[in-house]
Specification:
The protein is of the alpha/beta class and 135 residues long. It is 43% helix and 26% strand. A five-stranded mixed beta sheet has the order 3-2-1-4-5, sandwiched between helices.
Length: 135
């Protein structure tokens, strides 16, 4: 089997998480500067077999698209041009940043480490991936 990769897209940083090859366990992979995301994915896809990419879909409380959706759509267009055969699904990412922060607190991370926005993005991507796997 191949891995599933999840992306928590941000205009500055993007969190990335992946499954194991059996698609049982979701783990945070890294956070990359968004400007370096496509080259990073190209290298990763060369090294690892990935069958599906999940991209978080942020929404407002009323269910409408968030302001960042415009940037995500631009990314998705570039992604599909660069990787035309890669399957992409959107996954609701409601409250993943808050859940990531709470996860950091619950795991006993010190306050200084909890301010690490890159870690929050990586954990958010992991939560997106876990929510997909549980469904």
């Amino acid at each position: 089997m191949a891995r599933i990769l999840a992306i928590d897209y941000g205009t500055k940083r993007t969190g990335i998480a992946v499954t194991d090859e059996l698609q049982i366990i979701a783990s945070g992979l890294t956070t990359v500067n968004t400007g370096e995301l496509l080259p990073f994915l190209e290298r990763y896809f060369r090294e690892e077999k990935v069958e599906l990419v999940l991209v978080g879909e942020p929404k407002q409380k009323d269910g409408s698209a968030s302001q960042s959706e415009v940037h995500i759509q631009e990314f998705l267009k570039s992604f599909s041009e660069k990787f035309p055969s890669m399957s992409v699904k959107r996954v609701d990412e409601a409250f993943t940043s808050k859940m990531a922060f709470q996860t950091m607190i619950d795991s006993g991370l010190k306050k200084k480490k909890r301010r690490d926005k890159a870690l929050i993005d990586e954990i958010s991507a992991t939560i997106i991936l876990q929510s997909y796997l549980y469904k």
